[in-house]
Design brief:
29% of the residues lie in helices and 12% in strands. By secondary structure, the chain is an alpha+beta fold. The chain is globular.
């Protein structure tokens, strides 16, 4: 299944988001674009593979029949959204700061801070073009890593820093 997913590309579209903003009378931050990305991309720094689909933007997998595309995407969307093995729950406390790398993390805002308020700033640098496993390995001469295959030293380092100090994980 992993090798199959690594061979797939998907259409990502911001058209529905922009149309929704316009219909609600809201500001459209930028004109929508449609792009093709790998379903599994490789982080350019860590070399780790990650699922790169999002129900808000991923419209279909290219090169397969629609029913197959829908089934694969629904499976992946549910894995990302519902499988607690892939989640960290950040509990806001006074002076908390959360940050993540959008190239590798799917996030959602949970309204769990009442009666406090939460102030959020988004810093989004322009990222590189998402790279497939095949392209990454061809370009770097290195093997892209599964999450399980990282060195124990590397895993300890990243696991220690996955959550900010003082954060409770549910």
């Amino acid at each position: 299944m992993q090798a199959y997913l690594e061979s797939l590309t998907a259409l990502h579209s911001a058209v529905a988001q922009a149309e929704g903003s316009r219909a609600a009378g809201l500001h459209v931050r930028r004109e929508p674009i449609e792009t093709v990305h790998p379903v599994i991309r490789v982080h350019p720094v860590t070399g780790w593979k990650s699922v790169y689909v999002n129900p808000g933007f991923t419209r279909r997998i290219l090169g397969v029949p629609k029913p197959e595309s829908d089934s694969i995407l629904n499976f992946l969307f549910h894995q990302v959204a519902e499988n607690v093995d892939f989640q960290v729950r950040f509990h806001w406390e006074p002076n908390s700061i959360a940050f993540w790398d959008n190239r590798f993390v799917t996030h959602t805002a949970t309204f769990d801070f009442w009666p406090q308020t939460r102030h959020a700033l988004r810093a989004t640098p322009h990222g590189e073009k998402p790279e497939s496993v095949e392209d990454y390995e061809s370009r770097t001469g290195r093997v892209a890593k599964d999450r399980k295959s990282g060195s124990s030293k590397e895993s300890r380092f990243l696991n220690r820093r996955r959550v900010c100090p003082g954060t409770r994980i549910q």
